[in-house]
Amino acid sequence: MTDDVDTQVSDRLVGRVLDGRYRVDARVAKGGMATVYRALDTRLDRTVALKVMHDGLGDDAQFARRFVAEARAAARLSNPNVVAVFDQGDDNGTLFLAMEYVPGRTLRDVIREQAPLSPARALDLLTPVLSALSAAHDAGIVHRDIKPENVLISDKGAVKVADFGLARAVSASGNTATQGLLMGTVSYLAPELVTDGSADARSDVYSAGILLYELLTGNKPHSGDTPIQVAYAHVHADVPAPSLEVPTIPPYVDALVQRATARDRDLRPTDARVFSRQVHRVRSALEEGLPDDPELTGDLTVPIQQIRQDSGYDDGYTRGEVEIEPLRHDTIVVPVDRGRPTGAPAKPPTAPPHQQQPQRRSRGPIALIVILAAAIAIGTAAWYYGIHRYTTTPNLVSMAPAAAAAEAEKSGLHTSLDNQDYSEDVPLGAVMGTDPAAGDRIRKNGDIGLTVSKGPERYRVPQLVGLQLDAAQQALSPIKLITGQIIEQYSETVPQGRVMAISPRFNTVVKPGTAINFAVSKGKRPITVPDWTGKSYHDASKALRKLGFTVGRTTQYDEKVAEGNVISQTPNSGTLFAKDKVTMVVSLGPPLVDVPDVKRKSTADAQKILTDAGFKVTVQKAPFNLGLNIVAAQNPGAGKKAQPGSTIIITVL
C-alpha cells in the first residue's frame, strides 16, 4: 500500500489539470505506450478515464496527426460494448484521450483467476466483444489490438472493448512505440500483421479466436522464449484444437476456434458479424447439450487440403482425416489411417507371387462387403446428420414478428427476437433479417433469430445553444451526428466559446451523419478608444456614446485648458467593449479669485483696483446720478469669487 501511495505521489501527472479541464486524480494502469488515469472532467463534472501517451510520442508530428484522426473515428462508434471516447487533446506535447470510465477489471483478470472456462461461459464473454467489433467493422474501423487487457468488465458485469483506432495510430506512425506494441501483443497478432503489416476485419477475427482459445484453455496457443519465436509460430503453425488441452470441449467448438484462427485470412469469417453468427450457432448447440454435431462441425471446419495448398504445405498425406462430400457443398470429416496418402487404399503386405492371386480371391468378397458397409454407414450418417435432422429456413423478411412466428411454426420451427436494427427499406416493427438466413439449413424444431427493423435511423437535433463548443460536439457523438462548419461571431450577450446558433435547428429530425453547423461566440466586439484630451467635452461625450461607451464626467479648474474642454481621459487609448465606461475631467477654466470692495471709491480708483485684480470693468450711472463719480454699488459684490477676466459692473452716483 505504501509503494502504491509513493507511486501516486511521485507521478508527475497526478494532481495536474490537463488542457485546463481534466484534473488527474489517480493512476489506474500502465501499458507499453500509455498510462491510464482516473480524472475529473471539471467542465461537465464527471469521472473519466484519461489515457496519456508516454513521453516522446507527442513529439512525432505524423503520430499526432494519426492519433487525432483515429481518435475521431473511434469517437463516432456508438455501441454499448465499446468504451466511449469523449475527447482527445494535446497539453504541451502530452497527448491524451478522455474516455468512459469503467470501474471493474479486465478480461486478463478473469483468465488469470477462472480459466479454463466452460465453452458456454467463454462464448458468453466473447459475444459482447464481437458485438463491439461488428460495430467497428461496419464503420470501416479495424481494432488491430484485441487482447484481454483491452476488454473491460464493469462492476455490473458489462463487457466493453477499449482502444479502438489506437493501435493503428501507433503502427502507422513509424514511431519506435510500434515495436513496443508488437512485443506486448504478439500472442494475439494475425499472421498478416507479422509478415507485411496489413490488417482488415479478418485480422480482428483472428485475435478474437486466439482470445477464445485462451478462455477455453487458460493458455495461449503459441509460446516461445522470445516474441519473435511466438510471431514465427503464428505465421508457420496452425492453432491447435483446444480439446488437446481440455478433452471435454466438443468438436464443433474446436472447429469454431480453428476456423477463426486460420492462417490464410481468406479462410476466416469475413468480419466479426459473420463470426458472431457462427458463435451463436455453436452456443445453441451447447444449450442442447450435444457432445458432437458433425453437420455443424463440418460447416465450420476449414477443408484440410485447402489449408495445406494455401499455406504451401502438401505432402500428399492426411493426418487422421479425409474429406468426403456426399451432399451439396457440405463436408463430412471421417477418420482414416494416419500416414496413408489421401484417397489411396490401404496397401496390403508384400507376398510371394504364387500367393498373391489366392489372397485377392479370398479378400475380394470381404473387401466388397466392407466397402458396401462403409458406404451404407456413411450414407446413413449423411442422411441423418445432413437431411433427416434439418429443414430449410423460411423467408420471414418484411413480416411482423407474430406473423413470422406463425409462418415458422408451419415448418415446426420457433422464433426469438435476436436483435433490432435500423433500416431504410423495411418498415418499423417488421422482420429485416433472420439467423439462419432464408434458404439456409436449420435443425428441425430449431430456433430462428429475428432481427426486427426499428425503421429508418433518425435523430432529433439536441438543444446545443448556450453550451461550450466542445460540450456541444460531444453531445453529437452518441446520436451519430457530426460537426459541420464552425463560424465565429462577436456577441454582446453570449460569452466567448459558447454556441449562439445551430443549423439544422433544435429538434429537427435528421439522418445519421448529418453535419451540424455552429455559430460560436467570439465574445464582445472590441472597440478602439479615441483620445479627446484638450477637445470639447460636448463633442467628446456625443462621439463616445455613439460608439457604445458610457461616459463619466468630473470638473476642475485649469489655467491652461479652456472651460468646457477635456483636461484628461481614462482610458485614452486601447480597446474596450460596449457599455464600458470612459471617464473625463472637464475644465472649468482658471481658478476663481476674490472680488475687491470698491464701493465709495472714485470711479477712476475703482477701475484701477478691479483691473489690477484681473477683471474687466463696466461703468453704469445710477438713475439718480448726481455727478459725484463715486461707486454706489458693484456686481459681483465685494468678497464674492469670480473668474479672472470676467466683468465687474460698478454703479456710480
UniProtKB/TrEMBL annotation:
Give the Enzyme Commission number.
2.7.11.1
The cross-references to Pfam families, in alphabetical order and at most eight, read:
PASTA, Pkinase
Any one biological process term the GO annotation gives: negative regulation of fatty acid biosynthetic process
Cited InterPro entries: Kinase-like_dom_sf, PASTA_dom, Prot_kinase_dom, Ser/Thr_kinase_AS
GO MF assignments: ATP binding; protein serine/threonine kinase activity
The record's keywords, sorted A to Z, are: ATP-binding, Kinase, Membrane, Nucleotide-binding, Serine/threonine-protein kinase, Transferase, Transmembrane, Transmembrane helix
Q: Where is this region: Disordered?
A: 335-362
Q: Which residues form the Protein kinase domain?
A: 22-283
Q: Membrane spanning segments where?
A: 366-386
PROSITE patterns in the cross-refs: PASTA, PROTEIN_KINASE_DOM, PROTEIN_KINASE_ST
The top EC class is: transferase
Keyword Transferase recorded: yes
Biased composition (Low complexity) is annotated at 353-362
Q: Which reaction does it catalyse?
A: L-threonyl-[protein] + ATP = O-phospho-L-threonyl-[protein] + ADP + H(+); L-seryl-[protein] + ATP = O-phospho-L-seryl-[protein] + ADP + H(+)
Cite the PASTA domain residue spans from the record: 391-454, 455-522, 523-588, 589-653
Q: What NCBIfam families does the record point to? A: PknB_PASTA_kin
**This chain belongs to which protein, by name?**
non-specific serine/threonine protein kinase
User: Which organism encodes this protein?
Assistant: Kribbella jiaozuonensis
